[in-house]
Amino acid sequence: MPSFTDEIRVLESPIDVMYLMHKVFMAHSERTEALAEKAQGGGDITDLKDGLDVWLSQLLYHTKTEDIYMTGPLRDAQLQDGRKPLRENEKEHDELRQIGANLTHRLQRDGNTGLTSEVTSLVLAMEEKDHAELMTKVEEVEKALSGAIGEEQILARTRRHLYRSVMSFKVTEFDHFENEEAFVMPLLKDQMDHSQQLECVRRLLFDDESDNPRWIIDFVTGELEGHERKLLEKLETEFSLGV
């Protein structure tokens, strides 16, 4: 099984594009974490805000679309330890969305509306239950961002808290991608044929409701190089889209 940390040489089925997407998302997360680490020393955090904006917009769309078009149609299974992969996957999506929602709401309440319309619309579309079950990790991110953006003179402690929160967010994302590749992808390949996988992938790469439907695939393509970019471009030729 390939991993998002490896070079992807072939897409054996359409859904294998997830390996490329995960790889791109993790690379962006690591760059954003590096910006948060650098910000501990002071200075402007505009680049960090921009990095978080892209991170959230991609991840919120990705998890929402997976719930509807990827895991939604599948039948769950039970692992030897009693866990059910699809149910666990949904819980992990909720955790990631909760973090993203609280980042977004805090930025908006503080009058720092530097987020894209994609992030705002995705958060507003979330179900009420996704707003209610807040975790300690989410609150730490919220407080750290509020302090970092709302103060003219940002304390070193606030910067450190911000860095730790971003780092925790990245670890949560990393663990989720690993679990998804190990336990959900095999179920999907067993239960979806080629055409069903292709439609699922199309939904993941193209946002039909956006003024710019290509904003996801263009981001992913721009982060890939050489053979991996050609794999994605070849897959795109299978889509009969007028975008």
Task: Give a short summary of the structure.
The protein is 69% helix and 0% strand. It has 243 residues and is mainly alpha-helical.
Question: Could you characterize what this model shows?
Answer:
The chain is an all-alpha fold and 243 residues long. It has helices at residues 17-39, 46-70, 85-109, 117-124, 129-132, 136-150, 156-191, 194-205, 215-223, 226-236. It has a single domain (16-236), classed as Four Helix Bundle (Hemerythrin (Met), subunit A), CATH 1.20.120. The chain is built from 10 helices and no strands. The radius of gyration is 18 Å and the shape is globular. Mean pLDDT is 76; it is low at 106-115 and 127-138.
Keywords:
243 residues; mainly alpha; Four Helix Bundle (Hemerythrin (Met), subunit A); 10 helices
Write the layout of secondary structure elements.
Layout: H1 17-39, H2 46-70, H3 85-109, H4 117-124, H5 129-132, H6 136-150, H7 156-191, H8 194-205, H9 215-223, H10 226-236
The oligomerization state is single chain
Structurally, how many domains make up the residues?
1
> Based on DSSP secondary structure assignment, what is the total number of beta strands?
0
> How is the biggest beta sheet arranged?
none
**Order of helical and strand elements:** HHHHHHHHHH
